[in-house]
Write a structure and sequence with these properties.
Strand order of the largest sheet: 14-15-16-13-12-18-19
Low-confidence stretches: none
Oligomer: single chain
CATH topology of the largest domain: Aldehyde Dehydrogenase, Chain A, domain 1
Number of domains: 2
Shape: globular
Mean pLDDT: 96
Number of helices: 16
Largest sheet: 7 strands, mixed
Length: about 500
């Protein structure tokens, strides 16, 4: 990262494209409506974003459907498809500073994270799925000798992707990569306050040679553009990442329309279990701190609960204090900042409402805990001790830099507490006994379990959860199955 760049100045000078992207072109909303897009860091107006509604969704889906039916992308030689997606990945990499700045300005994330994590990882996801195109084989079933039974993956049509505001560029890439690699067309509906990176990604895709209509972006309000996309009769699948209540609505919309497929990646209340034979509590504390305070806790799989076996809590808390002494909280455009403010006043007020609960049932603040108001979106890293496992603080997703600590009597109690939640997105266990770790991990109800680490994610492994954390998986080769349908072709050889 070039520390000589004045990112604050570049942010105020930014003039991003903010129209709807349909059939390879930027267009105004059919209604002419826009909404204001403000910077979380200082409140300045970044731009006015076109506010799509049902008519715009209809236009985008029609473009995607026509391109799909024409077969210009679906039936293209796999080698040529791969080359286009690789060029697209390279363009994303070439424009990483612009994309990172768009992401940081929209979400309030530290510019250092947007540059080192969001932009390069999004490029890598597109590159990785490009490489799968000419390396994914179909099957021949063991049919009788007088027959040939072929099992092929077929693209399913128009995909509707609804993505959240916390990691918009990366999560968009998780939907785009496998969906487009499999030959589908896609309409992305970004979150209202983080539309800019998806629009730029679509522009670069067309510049790389992706046929117009394969990738469309319609910003807009959830109740208008999001609902219209989920209810559309020509959309074959909705891929949604976001909150549980909205995820339930997506299933309802699908049932009330054409019974489209739905995949959901929802929230979490991920436990980090620290057993009393953990040999390096300093390392555990550092990882625990990053797992909850990275991106100000606005991460679906954030390690927001620590479950601590008896005898080690005092030492663990001391190491957490040491971690925070060097953890830089502040201005998002300072390259040394490791945690900045929340994405909006709405999210700040949500976190404040949980901080109001502290002390009602014997909870104790170890550090942090101060609420903010007015235009201040920076809530300090917070640790709350003596939290009851059945309390709202322990059971509900706060989505802020708030860590709760729950006491466990022994290993069995720790396992029970870890699984006592409606969510099942991620979890970790800290122990020096690898056999103990494996046995414990097998019993944790979570889509991803880490041993002596946390948040080690990569495109090579699937990501998703159990229970209220949703269904389906993003990333890895398994995501290709989520954007395709198996087709059997039986040939009589007599």
């Amino acid at each position: 990262m070039d520390e000589n760049i004045d990112w604050q100045r570049r942010a105020t000078e930014l003039k991003p494209q903010s129209k709807i992207f349909i059939n390879g072109n930027y267009v105004d909303a059919a209604s002419g409506k826009t909404f204001d897009n403000f910077s979380p860091s200082d409140g300045h107006l970044i731009c006015k974003v076109a506010s799509g509604d049902t008519e715009d969704i209809n236009r985008a889906v029609a473009s995607a459907k026509k391109t799909f039916d024409d077969g210009i992308w679906r039936e293209m030689n796999p080698r040529d498809k791969k080359a286009i997606m690789l060029r697209w990945a390279q363009l994303l990499n070439d424009h990483r500073e612009e994309l990172a700045l768009l992401e940081a300005v929209d979400t309030g994330r530290p510019i250092s994270d947007a540059l080192s994590v969001d932009a390069p990882n999004s490029s890598r996801v597109i590159q990785w799925y490009a490489e799968t195109i000419d390396k994914t084989y179909d099957e021949i079933a063991p049919a009788p000798r007088n027959a040939l039974a072929m099992i092929t993956r077929e693209p399913i049509g128009v995909i509707g992707a609804v993505v959240p505001w916390n990691y918009p560029m990366m999560i968009t890439s998780w939907k785009l990569g496998p969906a487009i690699a499999m030959g589908n067309s896609i309409v992305v509906k970004p979150a209202e306050n983080s539309s800019l990176s998806a629009l730029k990604m679509a522009e670069l895709a067309v510049s790389a040679g992706l046929p117009a209509g394969v990738f469309n972006v319609v910003p807009g309000l959830g109740a208008e553009a999001g609902q219209a996309l989920a209810r559309h009769m020509e959309v074959a699948k909705i891929a949604f990442t976001g909150s549980g209540p909205t995820g339930r609505k997506m299933m309802q919309y699908a049932a009330e329309s054409n019974m489209k497929q739905v995949s959901l990646e929802l929230g979490g209340k991920s436990p980090q279990v620290i057993l009393n034979d953990c040999s390096d509590l300093a390392a555990a504390a550092s990882t625990i701190g990053w797992a909850i305070y990275y991106n100000a806790g606005q991460t679906c799989n954030a390690g927001s609960r620590i479950i601590v076996e008896k005898g080690i809590k005092e030492e663990l808390f001391a190491h957490l204090h040491t971690f925070l002494e060097s953890f830089k909280v502040g201005n998002q455009f300072d390259p040394s900042t490791q945690m900045a403010g929340l994405v909006s006043t709405l999210q700040r007020d949500r976190v404040n409402s949980y901080l109001d609960l502290i002390g009602q049932d014997g909870e104790k603040i170890i550090f942090g805990g101060e609420k903010t108001s007015d235009n201040d979106l920076l809530i300090k890293p917070t640790l709350i001790d003596n939290v009851k496992p059945e309390s709202r603080l322990a059971q509900e997703e706060i989505f802020g830099p708030v860590l709760v600590s729950i006491d466990a009597n022994d290993e069995a109690d720790a396992l029970r507490l870890a699984n006592t939640t409606e969510y099942g997105l991620a979890a970790s266990v800290w122990t020096s006994d690898i056999a103990r770790a494996h046995k414990f991990a097998r019993k944790l109800r979570a889509g991803t379990v880490w041993i002596n680490t946390f948040d080690m994610l990569d495109v090579i492994t699937p990501f998703g959860g159990f229970g209220a954390s949703g269904s389906g998986r993003d990333k890895s080769l398994h995501a290709l199955d989520a954007y395709s349908a198996l087709k059997t072709t039986w040939v009589d050889l007599n």
